[in-house]
Every structure is written in C-alpha cells, then in structure tokens.
TrEMBL record, chain A:
This is Cullin family profile domain-containing protein. Residues 1-28 are annotated as: Disordered. The lineage of its organism: Eukaryota, Viridiplantae, Streptophyta, Embryophyta, Tracheophyta. Belongs to the cullin family. It comes from Brassica napus (Rape). It comes from the Eukaryota. Pfam families: Cullin (PF00888), Cullin_AB (PF26557), Cullin_Nedd8 (PF10557). Residues 527-754 form the Cullin family profile domain. PROSITE patterns: CULLIN_2. SUPFAM superfamilies: Cullin homology domain, Cullin repeat-like, Winged helix' DNA-binding domain.
From TrEMBL, chain B:
The keyword Nuclease does not apply. It comes from Brassica napus. It holds the Pfam family UBA_4. Residues 36-232 form the DCUN1 domain. This is Defective in cullin neddylation protein.
Length: 885, 239
C-alpha cells in the first residue's frame, strides 16, 4: 500500500510539472501507463479503502506522504526538480545564473524507489525516465530553498563557463481561472460532505488548490472553504436539532464523525494552502478552523448548546440513580468536546457537570445524613466516590477525576464532617468504643481526602481518649486495686494501638495523639507511678509464673510504655526501689532474669544514674550470701539453735525507712550480737543497724492438741508470738510494752495474727476486726490448717496509706532540690548569662526524663543559688542571671 | 536608738534595756556582756562585774559606737531613728548600723566637705533631699540591706527588714508596703535575702499597685509571687 502510493505521488508531481510549464518532457513515457497510473491515483482507491475498517488511520499515510514532499521524505533529486520548477515560477525566472546539469541519480536508487506492483515500468528503460536535464538555479534568494542547496547545485555554480540562456516562457493566466478552479473545489467539498467523494481525484483537486494558491488566490480559496464549510455545518446543525429525544446525541455524534472525515479530506486537498498561504498570513489552519466552525455552528448553536448539555447531565443523573446508559455515546461526545479544545470541554461541559454533581450530592448527602447512621453514610459515600472515579475512567477526561472527586469529598464529607464525627450512637466515639475497625478505617480513608478531615477525627479521638482516661484514672472505685488499674490502662493502650494500626494505617499523627493523651491522663492521678510499680511487683512476685520468657518480655515492654508516659519518673523509681527491696528481702522474686531485664530496660530509657542504686541492691544480696557463709564458717557452734540470715544493705542503695527499734527475743538478739561482732571484725569503720521492719522469721509452733505448724511471719510478729512462750494471756498494753513496736505497726501485726481467717494463731477478746488498746490476746489452741507451713502475711495495705504517701511525696520533693540546683548550675556554667524564662525552660527540659520540675521550685532554687553566690542578677536587666565562677 | 535596735530581737532588746537600767553601763558594754553570755541576764551580770573590759584591748577603741552616735545625734539635733542617719551612714559608707569606724567617719566627712558639726548640720537638709532622688534612693535602699543586717549574716532578720521598709517607704510612697509587711509576718516569717530585698524596690517601682502590669513569668522572687497571690486572696487587688 505504501509503496503504491509512493509511486502515485511521484508521478503526480511529474505530471504537475508537465502541465504547468511543459518545460520538461517525459518523452519516453508510455501513455497507456500514464493513464493507468492516474486511474489508480484517483480518489476511488483511497475512498474504497476508507470504507473499510479503521479507515481514517489507513487513509492517512497516503495523504501524508503527499504532504511531506517539501520535507524531502521521498528521495531527493526528483523533488529537487519539482521544487526548482515551483521556484522558477515563483521567481518569474529572475535568476540569471541558470545552469544545466546532469542528474546524478544512479540506477540503483531509481530501482529502490521503483513501485513493486507496476509491471508497465519495464517497457522502457527506467533510467531514462529520470535521466532528463534538470534546471539548476541559484537559490540564494529563494525562501523555499530547503532541499535545493544540494552539493551538486553548489558545485555547479562555480563553473560559470557552462552558462546558457534561460528558457523564455510566458505564463498566460486565464482571467476566469480563479472562479473556475474554485467552482471545481467547491463542488468537491459539497461532494465530500454529501459522502459522494468516490469519484473525486485527489490529485486533481490538490493541484487545483495548489494552483490557486500559486496564482495568489489563496484568500479566495480560504474564505471560500470557510463559507462552504459553514454552510454545510449549518445544515448539519439543523438536522441535529431536528433529531428527537434519544436520537439527538446519536445524530450529533454521527454528524461529528462525518464532519471529521470530511474535514480531513478537505485539509488534505488544501494542504498546500495550509502550508504556504495560511502560514504566511497567520490565519488559523484548515483543521483547527474546521473544528472551530463546528464549535461555533453546531455545538454553540443556541438550539443545541443547552440541549446537548442537559442531555449529557441527564444521562449522568440517570446513571447515578441506577439506570444503564450508553456510555460509549457519552464518551464520544465528551471526546468531541476534548477535540474541540480543553477550554471547550471545561466551559461547555465540565463546569456545568461539576455544578450539577455538587447539587446532586448536596441533596443526596442531606438525605443520607438524615436517614443513615455514620457507618452506613460512610459506606455510601465511599461507594459514590468509587462510582465517580469509575465514571471518569469510562467517559470523561482523566483530568476531571480530581475535580469530581473533590466535589464528592466536599459535598459528602467536608460539609458534614462535624455532624458525622459527632453523630450520636454511631459517630466516631461509638466506633472507638465498639472497636469498629472497618468503619474507622473507612472514616480514615475518606476523611484524609479533605482538608482538616484527619485533624477533626484526631481531635475527637483525643478528646474522647482523654475524657475516658480521665474517668479511668480518677474514679476512686477503679483505683482501689492497683494491679487492675494498670491492667485497665494496658488494655486501653492495646485497644488504641490496634485501632491505629488496623484502621488508621499506623498514622504517626494518630500515634502521637494517642501517646499524648495517655501521657495526659496517666499523670492526672498522682498515684500512677506507685501503681505501675505495684503492677510490676505483682507480676514479678507471682504473675509471671509459668509464662514463657517471650511473653514476660512482652508484658515488661508494655509496662515500659506506660512508664514512658510518666512525668514523675523519680517517684516511680522511689516506689520501684521499695517494692524491689521487699521482693529481694523476702525472696519473693519469681525470675531473676525478668528482674534484670526490666532493670536493663529502665537503664536504656533513663540512663545509668537511674538504675545504679537498683543494681546496687542486687550486688548487696550477692555479697550478703558470701558474708553469711563466712559467718557460719567461723562460728561452727551455731549449727544448733535458731538460724540467722542477715542481709547487709548499703545505705543509700536501699529505700531508707527509719529503723524502727523493737525488743527482739533474747534468743535472737544474742545471735544478732554475734553477727555484729563478726561483721565489724572483718569490716572496720562500719555501722550496723537492724531493720526490724523488713525481716521475716520461720517459727515452729505446737498448738493445743499437738498440731505442729511452721509459721512464716515478720520480725514483729515473731516478737509478739515469742511472748506467748511465757504467758498464755497478754493485753495489748503488755505486748506493746514488751516489744516496743510502734503502735501502728503493732496493730497491723496483731491484726494479721488474730483477725485473718485460717491464719489466726492467736485469739483476740473481744472478737472484732480492729485492734483496740484494751484488747486481750490468747493463743488460739484450736488453730488448724491443711498445710504444715503457714504464711502469715502482714495486713499491709498494698497501696500506701495517706500519711505514707505524703511522706514519700516529701522525700521525693526533697530529693529533687539538689537535682534542680545541679541542672541550673550545669546550664549556667555553660551559658554564663541566661534570662529567666530560658533557664526555666532549659531546666525543665533537662529534668524531663526524670520528672516535671515545678517552675516555682526552680525559682526558689535559683534564689537559693543567688544567695549562695553561684549566680547573680544582672545589674541592669533583672531578668538576666549571671553565673559566678 | 531604733536603728541600732532593729538588729536585736524584741526579747534581746528588753534584756538590753534591763541590763542598762541595772548596771548603768553603756549600751556598748551592755551589749558586749550580753553577747558574751549568750543573752543570759544573770550570766551577763557576772561577766560585766567580774571582768570589766580592759580599754587597751577594745577592738572598738577607735570607733563611734551607739553611745557616740547618740551624742552625735543630739549634737545634730536629730532623732537617732531619723532616716537621715541612714543617708549619713551611706555617705560614710558605713559597714554596719550604729557604728562608724574612724576611716568611715573621716572619709564620709571629707566627701561631704564638712569639717564642723555646724556644717554637718547644714548638710542635713541636703541629705534629706537626696532621698527624693530616684537614683540615689535606689543606692541608699540597696546600701541599707548590708548596713542593717547583722555582721556575718547573709540575710536580713525579718523584724529589721520590716522596720527598714517602713522607714524607707515612708520617703517613697508605695501603697502596698503595709500589706507586704503583714504578708511577711503572716506567711513567711523568715529572714529576707538580699535578692528579695533588692527586687522589692524594683517591684514597687515598676509594678503598679493594681498589679495590672505584673508578669507571673517576670523573674520575680517567689516571695513576691506569693505576695501577689496573697493580695489576690485577700482581695486587696482585683484580679
């Protein structure tokens, strides 16, 4: 096909040359061959082809090749010749330096371009067709000189001795030439529009148009083509207008396709005008002109314009309400808008479409929000959104996607955001409460599309979380049991972790919001540090029994999460130290590994300083073991009688409670004395004081009917019980006098001995729950127990009592003072001069990992440092502090 | 003499008066005896009567002490508790109240260009006027702290401080001075640090009595912050 048309093109140009100037004679040409070629060239060929499938595309190369002549798409020399002819005419043979030279076209090249299908070529020597003389010109002044400046022409210029006279040739122009030619063309255009183009000769029409331009009738040709086309389009518009109902769009589409086809043919015919006349006069090219004529005469025709738009919008509306429409048709029409230019698409279709959509969704969202709960609404909104994206894919321009989705987002989500989030019984809070991961995920993915959407969700979540957390930590009922209290916190955390990871795509901002909320409410309860430590205590005492190491780690990690939220980490440290001390001293630790693992975690979190004392406690335990071995090694006689196990605790590492002195039973105090002298003998310069409040004792007891039991009791309880070796009946006062245990401790220990069911080794008179100062105590002879070993716990409120709490608080405050001062001095030492607000800020920041420093306290410390001449106030600016080295 | 007695607590002041009344000793000697015996009257009598101070070893030999000052005051015809004595001490750059060393006294007189009691008396009105000078008042105020405090102490006893404030703020109007003194006795009851002393004048100078321009973040000593709270609590000032 391609080669065929190539040959046609080349011939037609040769012919053009013949007709126009008759300066070149293809003398050897066989006339029959020529006529055959012309017949082939006729429009019928292309028209027939075009009637087959994918017509437009296949047709194009034929025309296009013709159009590329000037661009030397087809081998050079022949077109050089033609162009020279054109130029000669254009220049009216002004060039004086005309030469004749022989074509250097080799036979090979001719063969290469020889059409395969034309047998007739063989009748005459092919080479001779092309071996005619070419005229060479000096093209220097010629604007259309592209391919002409071939090396051959250039080299010939130098040989001026070949100069010969130019042809004398006069062109006589028929005065009616223009009108005649135009009539031919006009008729052709009519025929094209009437789809009767099969009889037309493209070559002839092209030549006519070409000649018109050549003879300076470009203007006539141009206006003529516009007028003719306008006429046809008006006619088409009338036909389209006449179409009824559903046929309207189809008619429009059909006419549009026809126009397109016709326009393409016309453009090809007028190709030469397109390239020369229009180019030089800067008028719109034929094809764009054709499109704008269509736009002005058809699309913008008053009877079509609104009807078209309404039809389209109606179709979209129908589809939205569930009807099936001809998407292909709509697609073609929107494609037409696009072909007419993006602005036409936007102004004539997209804008009204978006407005209509906006209106539609406004109404619909209002309906939905009145009738649906939040979850259903979101489902519907999501469905609508995917539908619209789908719609764009099917029959709208891809650029419309963002616009239409933003309309849906605005109307369906942004405008109802607050209402949706706060919807009663189904809004965000409800979803959070009921773990509706799917709905939450949907809300997240929809709300993230609109500005402030996520912020709204996050704010509501934060608010809810804070409110919920606040209730959780401040409800006195819920903070009764510290272990449960912390477990609840952990559960909440797990819950929100899961929500954020499954529904909110692990969004960092949500994680931060959740973290800050936890931090906020955990610190609302000043007892949180104590409770968290108690929780750990509980886990390490018994909770972790039989749990795999991996799971232990998981629990500890979770506890560390909570620990991170604490602002008063030093308070936690205080309690942790106390609880750890109790665990270690009573040997109640379940797993040393778990203990150490937690210490390591605390160390990584808060640094060496934080845990050094805790680690010191472990060391003390180890050293004490060795000491005891040494003690019994040096006192072999002690293997009989009571055994004493002493743990030597380094002051400072352990929580120091004021040592409560009490009178130990004689048997024990003798032993204690022995140990004291042994220890002080090996370690000089040390002071030992007995921490009777921390010890335990195992004592064997025989009750009334000979029941033997081993009782595990505290040191105080031991002191009390030992008294009953000498008397059966003791009053509270007598016990108090004999043991000198401080009243609150004594009451507690008596309570645990006498009032706990199943462990009441002594009886109290009168029977009551509380210990009175006038109570009497006797040994409970009827004591029985299933177990040989009976552990008598002290009735310790696991939580601290109010005064204890106050005391711890005070100790913490006292401990903070030197830390604050140290921080101030550190900062001032490096900064030398700093203003008040900055120093407060820096100190707060520096102490943050341990506790939240109170600004008033910092101020007091600053003043104290001023008084002690570490700092001074600046003389002129009283807000500035200077460091005094 | 008020200025002198400010540094003594009330009970000690009574003891001093009693001692003077009984022994007829000078204030200086009475003070010495009482201090030596740790403010026990009986013991002080013993000290006073058994070992009268040998004049030659007296470290105060070339100093004007309380006695001398009261003579000076009567010569100048001013009350000893007159604030002008503070200004005079300031000119002399005296280290402690109720005392002038020879150097301080001579240096001060030279600076004032005074060589007779008459000329010094003439200077008194000038000295009084100096209190009206903002800058000089500031200096005198700050001088007063070191001057009035007990030797070797870092801070100023509350009684003394309150007395000084009453005196100083009589010269320079500050409507809150009585509330301030009440507040200190009510809530604080401790000695006053130099910083608090100095900052109070700043506070009185820069913050208006309605506290409209008070800045809680303004680096005021915490005592002043608490005072502000106190004023709000007592509804002395509307928040």
């Amino acid at each position: 096909m391609n080669l065929m048309t190539q040959s046609k093109e080349s011939d037609s140009y040769l012919d053009t040359g013949d007709d126009a100037s008759s300066s070149i004679k293809a003398s050897t040409r066989d006339p029959s061959m020529l006529s055959e070629l012309i017949a082939k060239r006729s429009f019928r060929a292309s028209q027939n082809l075009s009637n087959q499938t994918s017509t437009v595309l296949k047709q194009r190369p034929a025309f296009n090749l013709a159009s590329k002549v000037d661009e030397a798409a087809i081998p050079g020399e022949r077109f050089l010749g033609i162009l020279m002819l054109e130029s000669k005419k254009l220049m009216n043979l002004k060039a004086p330096n005309t030469l004749i030279y022989r074509s250097r076209l080799s036979e090979e090249r001719v063969n290469r371009i020889k059409p395969r299908g034309s047998r007739n070529w063989g009748q005459s020597p092919i080479s001779s067709i092309y071996r005619f003389f070419f005229l060479g010109f000096d093209y220097c002044n010629c604007s259309d000189s592209g391919p002409s400046s071939s090396p051959a022409a250039m080299s010939n210029q130098k040989k001026r001795n070949f100069q010969i006279e130019a042809f004398k040739h006069r062109v006589v122009v028929d005065p009616k030439y223009a009108d005649k030619t135009w009539q031919i063309l006009e008729r052709a255009i009519h025929q094209i529009y009437n789809q009767d183009a099969s009889g037309l000769s493209f070559e002839e029409l092209y030549r006519n148009a070409y000649n018109m331009v050549l003879h300076k009738f470009g203007e006539k040709l141009y206006t003529g083509f516009i007028a003719t086309m306008t006429g046809h389009l008006k006619e088409k518009a009338r036909l389209i207008e006449a179409a009824q109902g559903g046929a309207f769009l189809e008619e429009l589409n059909k006419k549009w396709n026809e126009h397109n086809k016709a326009l393409e043919m016309i453009r090809d015919i007028l190709m030469y005008m397109d390239r020369t006349y229009i180019e030089s006069t800067k008028k719109p090219h034929v094809h764009p002109m054709g499109l704008s004529l269509w736009r002005d005469n058809v699309v913008h025709s008053p009877k079509i314009h609104t009807r078209l738009l309404n039809t389209l919008l109606d179709l979209v509306y129908k589809e939205r309400t569930g009807e099936v429409i001809d998407r292909g048709l709509v697609r073609n029409v929107t494609k037409m808008f696009m072909d007419l230019g993006e602005s036409v698409y936007q102004d004539d279709f997209e804008k009204p479409f978006l407005e209509a959509s906006s209106e539609f969704y406004k109404v619909e969202s209002q309906e939905f929000i009145e009738s649906c709960d939040c979850g259903d609404y979101l489902k519907k909104a999501e469905k609508r959104l995917t539908e619209e994206i789908d719609r764009v894919g099917h029959y709208l321009d891809a650029k419309s996607e963002d616009k239409i989705t933003s309309v849906v987002e605005r109307e369906m989500i942004a405008n109802h955001m607050q209402r949706l989030v706060h919807m009663e019984n189904s809004g965000l809070v409800n979803m959070l409460l009921n773990d509706k991961y799917e709905d939450l995920g949907r809300m997240y993915s929809l709300f993230r599309r609109v500005t402030n959407g996520l912020a709204t969700v996050r704010d509501v979540m934060t608010l809810h979380l804070r409110e919920m957390g606040k209730q959780l930590v401040t409800d006195p009922e819920k903070s009764k049991d510290p272990v449960e209290f912390v477990q609840r916190l952990l559960d909440e955390r797990d819950k929100y972790d899961k929500i954020i990871s499954t529904a909110f795509g692990n969004d960092k901002t949500f994680q931060n919001a959740s973290n800050s909320s936890f931090e906020y409410f955990i610190n609302l309860n000043t007892r949180s540090p104590e409770f968290i430590s108690l929780f750990v205590d509980d886990k390490l005492r018994k909770g972790l029994k039989g749990i795999a190491d991996v799971d232990v780690e998981v629990i500890l990690d979770k506890v560390m999460m909570l620990f991170r939220y604490l602002q008063e980490k030093d308070v936690f440290e205080k309690y942790y130290k106390q609880h750890l001390a109790k665990r270690l001293l009573s040997g109640k630790t379940v797993s040393d590994d778990a203990e150490k693992s937690l210490i390591v975690k605390l160390k990584t979190e808060c640094g060496y300083q934080f845990t050094s004392k805790l680690e010191g406690m472990f060391t003390d335990m180890k050293t004490s073991e060795d000491t005891m071995r040494g003690f019994y090694g040096s006192h072999p006689e002690l293997s009989e009688g009571p055994t004493l196990t002493v743990q030597v605790l380094t002051t400072g590492s352990w929580p120091t409670q004021p040592a409560v002195p009490c009178n130990l039973p004689a048997e024990v105090s003798v032993l204690c004395e022995k140990f004291r002298s042994y220890y002080l003998g090996t370690h000089t310069g040390r002071r030992l004081s007995w921490q009777t409040n921390m010890g335990t004792a195992d004592i064997k007891a025989v009750f009334g009917k000979g029941q033997k039991h081993e009782l595990n009791v505290s040191t105080f309880q031991m002191c009390v019980l030992m008294l009953f070796n000498n008397s059966d009946r003791l009053s509270y006062k007598e016990i108090e006098q004999a043991t000198e245990i401080p009243a609150p401790e004594l009451k507690r220990c008596l309570q645990s001995l006498a009032c706990v069911k199943g462990k009441n080794v002594i009886k109290k008179e009168p029977m009551s729950k509380d210990i009175g100062e006038d109570d009497l105590f006797v040994v409970n002879d009827k004591f029985t127990s299933k177990f040989y070993k009976v552990k008598i716990g002290t009735v310790v409120a696991q939580k601290e009592t109010e005064p204890e709490k106050q005391e711890t608080r005070q100790r913490v405050e006292e401990d903070r003072k030197p830390q604050i001062e140290a921080a101030i001095v550190r900062i001032m030492k490096s900064r030398k001069i700093l203003d008040h607000n900055n120093i407060i800020a820096e100190v707060t920041k520096q102490l943050q990992p341990r506790f939240l420093a109170n600004p008033t306290e910092i101020k007091k410390r600053i003043e104290s440092l001023i008084e002690r001449d570490f700092l001074e106030r600046d003389n002129t600016d009283r807000k500035l502090y200077r460091y005094l080295a | 003499m008020i200025l002198c007695q400010h540094k003594l607590s009330r009970s000690n002041r009574d003891k001093l008066q009693q001692f003077v009344a009984i022994t007829g000793a000078s204030d200086k000697n009475a003070l010495q005896a009482l201090k030596a015996s740790d403010w026990q009257l009986e013991a002080a009598f013993d000290v006073f009567y058994s070992q009268p101070q040998p004049r030659s070893n007296d470290p105060y030999s070339d100093m004007i002490l309380a006695e001398g000052i009261s003579v000076l005051c009567s010569d100048l015809q001013v009350e000893p508790q007159d604030i002008v004595t503070l200004v005079l001490s300031w000119h002399m750059n005296a280290a402690t109240a109720c005392e002038f060393s020879k150097e301080e006294f001579f240096g001060g007189l030279q600076a004032l260009g005074v060589d007779s009691i008459g000329k010094l008396q003439e200077k008194l009105s000038f000295m009084r006027s100096e209190l009206k000078d903002e800058q000089k008042f500031h200096e005198i105020y700050n001088f007063a702290f070191g001057w009035a405090k007990e030797k070797g102490q870092k801070s100023l006893a509350l009684d003394t401080a309150i007395g000084m404030w009453q005196l100083l703020f009589a010269e320079r109007e500050w409507p809150l001075v009585n509330h301030w003194c009440d507040f200190l006795q009510d809530r604080h009851n401790k000695a006053i640090s130099k910083d608090t002393w100095a900052q109070l004048l700043e506070f009185a100078r820069t913050v208006d009595p309605a506290l409209s321009n008070y800045d809680a973040e303004g680096a005021w000593p915490y005592l002043i912050d608490e005072f502000v709270e106190y004023l709000y609590d007592k509804s002395v000032v509307e928040k």
